[in-house]
């Protein structure tokens, strides 16, 4: 992780009619950082990620993502990021190889580069036997690892992971986080939301949202000290309790 800022959010507001999903968000994320974005359901996490990934525009304020404005240049943002949502974003009626080729083309990669990256990916994940299998036939853990690998196939500046480890066993989750560490070590920023509080401990810094606002932002260790808690989960409960 370096001090180079790759995401800068300034007074970001997103409204849906009279409902405010994001209220005056301000934060920065650095190159190569693993940044955890936490909050209860309805806290505004997914809305924020959709804006930062160019899928939605803010009502007011702005976010600069990899040098591009979320309010004025969302299409340019899409070209320099990777995105993996909870549903894994893979086409189940296509094979593993076909999915890689499809997304490589969407990312503007040459055929030669796609072939090279496919070979590297198969070797790295030991996927040689799965290349011509339909995505629908893959075990959930393998599908998840593949989706993440495809999201960073084009070496983006930032990869957004929206609850990527839902529904898998603890061993697979740990393996997935090893992939995240390796990705961040290459200078790719990882912006991740998760419901698993133990995963928050793996992040360089975490932000906790409540009712559309950021109420805590620091390293896991510092946030635990601030709230006199032994775990991030305990912090989360203290923050969420007034809403229960």
Describe the protein:
This protein is α/β, with parallel strands linked by helices and 244 residues long. The chain contains nine helices and ten strands. It has helices at residues 45-52, 74-79, 96-106, 111-125, 140-151, 170-185, 197-200, 220-226, 232-240; strands spanning 5-16, 19-30, 34-39, 60-65, 68-69, 81-84, 158-162, 189-193, 205-210, 213-218. The strands form two sheets. The protein has a six-stranded mixed β-sheet, with helices on both faces. It has a four-stranded antiparallel β-sheet with strand order 2-1-4-5. Strand 9 and strand 10 form a beta hairpin. The longest helix has 16 residues, at 170-185. The radius of gyration is 18 Å and the shape is globular. The termini are far apart. The mean pLDDT is 91.
Strand arrangement, major sheet: 6-7-8-3-9-10
Coarse morphology: globular
Share in helix: 25-40%
Content of β-strand: 25-35%
Uncertain segments of ≥5 residues (pLDDT<50)? none
* Largest sheet entry: 6 strands, mixed
Element pattern in H and E? EEEHEEHEHHHEHEHEEHH
Structure class: alpha/beta
In angstroms, what separates the terminal alpha carbons? 37 Å
Average pLDDT number: 91
Q: How many extended strands?
A: 10
Whole-angstrom Rg: 18 Å
Please work out how many helical segments DSSP would assign.
9
